[in-house]
Design brief:
heterodimer; A: 218 residues; mainly alpha; elongated; B: 217 residues; alpha+beta; Butyryl-CoA Dehydrogenase, subunit A, domain 3; 2 domains; four-stranded antiparallel β-sheet; two-stranded antiparallel ribbon; 7 helices; cell inner membrane (chain B); transmembrane (chain B); membrane (chain B); transmembrane helix (chain B); cell membrane (chain B)
């Protein structure tokens, strides 16, 4: 496929910033300012093109900062413990990630992947969002490399799996509850809180609206 | 819900047919032939290069590792009386028959129905886009969106094993160890996520409306 062959057909000047191509079906739309609280959808495939919220950047930065603090708590404190027949055993979030490597060297790559999915990538995503959108929330000019930080944060979205981990933990608790008494550590509650904050943040996050806002702050 | 919906001078055609390429991330348009988005720096591709080959390659890789994922034990439970190893399906069935039916069903859905459904759905989208009747894109696109959204949730079972293996170390009374199926299953989830990410949804709409896609047509 050679896209350059069609150069001559396209307009030579850069198109207007109001023009948007639907990322799902490529249909062109001329979307000017969309009022906050409403949505613009693609007329062909119904994908939401823009869904700006009032004060979105400030809310996202606040939620992301809260989530980041809770993540620090979640990795530093005891997560769960069990007791049965006078024996006790406990695990932290790190222990969970490292359990594959400890069981067998052949499964060490899985520990690296699990650690990335539940701690490293969610943290990278939160830091990127805070860095890129922080100045926007304060009404300042965008920082250098804000665009890159925001782009990478958005790319990481499918790979940050904190919320899936907490459902996995819930299933594990059902399996283990017949075997032993379960105790919840502070890290467990911090992780639950963090998942709620991240879910709230992702609900209000409209990528293309924030790109427009970043553009204005550049 | 449709406030601010599109209406304008260029409505009624695709960016490709207008000689433009739209950024998938920030939405900005650039003239065809531009390689990087001026606003966000993302790589611009009017349609993903070699999308079909990449989707089938990841799909096949995911299917191949899905076989050992179901044959090897997922979890090995050591108790005073016996050592018991369970496969993915076995572990879910144990939950359904002995324990919690609801949670057993969640595990069955996450680690059997979603992966199998995902293989079928991706293959279906790929085959159906070879010849699509006009108006057939909506259902196919919906299927693609569901696959893309739900695929990552299969990872639940890997996390269940991770936390159980870390937590259950009660001396000689009980211990839980991860089996080789965990790494195969984890790889399968990642490969099929990459297959879904390599699939260009614009391909679905092109197939339903071939006249709207090619500027040279």
């Amino acid at each position: 496929m050679n896209d350059r062959s069609s150069d001559a057909i396209g307009p030579q000047a850069a198109p207007s910033h109001d023009l948007i191509a639907c990322p799902q079906c490529d249909w062109l739309h001329d979307v000017g300012d969309v009022p906050t609280g409403t949505r613009a959808r693609c007329v062909r495939c119904r994908t939401v093109l823009l869904a700006p919220r009032r004060g979105a950047a400030a809310t996202i930065v606040a939620l992301a900062t809260g989530a980041l603090i809770l993540m620090v708590v979640a990795v530093s404190f005891p997560f769960l413990d069990i007791a049965a027949g006078g024996l006790r055993s406990s695990a932290s979030v790190m222990d969970a990630a490292l359990s594959f490597a400890l069981a067998s060297g052949r499964m060490a790559p899985l520990s690296v992947i699990v650690l990335a999915l539940i701690v490293v990538l969610p943290v990278a995503r939160l830091c990127g969002l805070i860095y890129a959108l922080g100045p926007l929330a304060l009404g300042r000019r965008a920082r250098p490399y804000a665009a890159q930080a925001f782009r990478i944060s958005m790319r990481l979205r499918p790979w940050a799996m904190a919320e899936i981990f907490i459902i996995g933990v819930a299933v594990a608790l059902v399996k283990v509850s017949s075997l032993a008494a379960v105790g919840f550590g502070p890290a467990f509650w911090a992780f639950v809180g963090l998942v709620i904050l991240v879910a709230a943040k992702d609900t209000i996050l409209c990528e293309r609206s924030l790109w427009r806002a970043l553009d204005r702050a550049a | 819900m449709n406030a601010g919906a599109a209406h304008g001078t260029v409505a009624g055609r695709t960016a490709r047919s207008a000689g433009l390429v739209g950024c998938l991330h920030c939405g900005l348009l650039a003239p065809m032939g531009e390689t990087d988005c001026l606003r966000c720096g993302a790589r611009l591709e009017s349609r993903f290069r070699n999308s079909r080959q990449r989707v089938w390659a990841w799909w096949l890789a995911g299917l191949i590792v899905y076989v050992p994922a179901n044959l090897y034990p997922m979890m090995i439970t050591d108790t005073l009386l016996a050592t018991y190893s369970s496969t993915i399906i076995g572990g879910a069935m144990d939950l359904v028959t002995h324990g919690d039916v609801f949670v057993g069903l969640i595990v069955l859905i996450a680690s059997v129905m979603i992966p199998v459904g995902k293989f079928l759905a991706i293959a279906w989208v790929m085959i159906a886009t070879r010849k699509l009747r006009p108006g057939g894109a909506h259902r196919l696109h919906r299927m693609y969106e569901v696959v893309e959204f739900i695929g990552r949730w299969s990872m639940i079972d890997v996390f269940v094993v991770a936390i159980l293996a870390a937590l259950v170390h009660l001396g000689s009374v009980a211990g839980i160890f991860p089996g080789l199926a965990a790494i195969c299953f984890g790889a399968s989830v990642i490969f099929t996520m990459l297959a879904a990410l390599s699939l260009d949804p614009r391909m679905i709409w092109d197939a339903a409306d071939p006249n709207a896609q090619d500027p040279s047509a």
